[in-house]
Amino acid sequence: MLDNHHKNLATFIHLSTFSRFIIPFGNFIGPIILWAANKDKSDFIDQHGKQAINFQISVLLYAIIIGTLSVPFFIFKVFRNMSFIDFNGFNNFHINIDHPSPLLYIGGSLGAIAVLAFIIELALIVKASLSARDGENYKYPFTINFLK
Questions:
Q1: Dihedral sign of CA atoms 100, 101, 107, 111 in order
Q2: Cβ atoms of 6 and 45 closer than 8 Å
Q3: Helix (H, G, I), strand (E, B) or coil at 54
Q4: CA–CA distance from 64 to each of 61, 68, 85, 125, 143 (Å)?
Q5: Is there a domain that residue 143 lies in?
Q6: Is the CB of residue 48 less than 8 Å from the CB of residue 138?
Q7: What is the span of the domain harbouring residue 24?
Q8: Inter-residue contact 107 to 74 (CB < 8 Å)
Q9: CA neighbours within 13 Å on the CB side: how many for 42?
Q10: pLDDT value at residue 89
Q11: Is residue 147 domain-resident?
Q12: Residue 123 has what DSSP assignment?
């Protein structure tokens, strides 16, 4: 039987991921502390804690992949006319961004995808919190289950 205390704990596990805006890595620290301290109290709290932590790890993994893919596009565009062999100081250092190349468009598109993913992440966290408040189980989409 779920009581309000269990629902509130599950809700706060999801909402504690917003602590990343105050504390570095708070999106991991907050849910892990709340989940570890309360996972034995009910399966409901355990399930929501695992879902919140798995989602945050998955989001971190996806952000690393998008960042790894987009950074080379910007680097190749900015430094395409520079010869590193003949580089002998900052006297002749010119960065040409007059004519955007397709590489810059691809990198910009990946950046736009990252912003869109951030907005979707915030919406999914709020949705999971509301589901926990109502006593429903919630499964984040596109989540890799690291904790089972």
A1: positive
A2: yes
A3: helix
A4: 5, 6, 31, 20, 15
A5: no
A6: yes
A7: 4-82+93-133
A8: yes
A9: 16
A10: 56
A11: no
A12: H
Q: Which two tokens stand for residue 31?
A: 């849910």
If DSSP codes are grouped into helix, strand and coil, which group holds residue 93? coil
Mean pLDDT by 10 residues, the chain (148 residues): 89 94 92 93 93 95 86 69 56 61 74 89 95 93 87
Which residue is associated with the tokens 């907005």?
A: 119
Residue 13 lies in a domain: yes
Number of domains in the chain: 1
CA distance 12 to 9: 5
Residue 38 lies in a domain: yes
Alpha carbon 137 to chain centroid, angstroms? 22
Residues in the chain: 148
Nearest residue to 12 (alpha-carbon basis) of 140, 125, 119: 125
What is the predicted pLDDT for the residue at 83?
A: 57
Measured CA to CA, the distance from residue 41 to residue 4 in angstroms comes to: 13
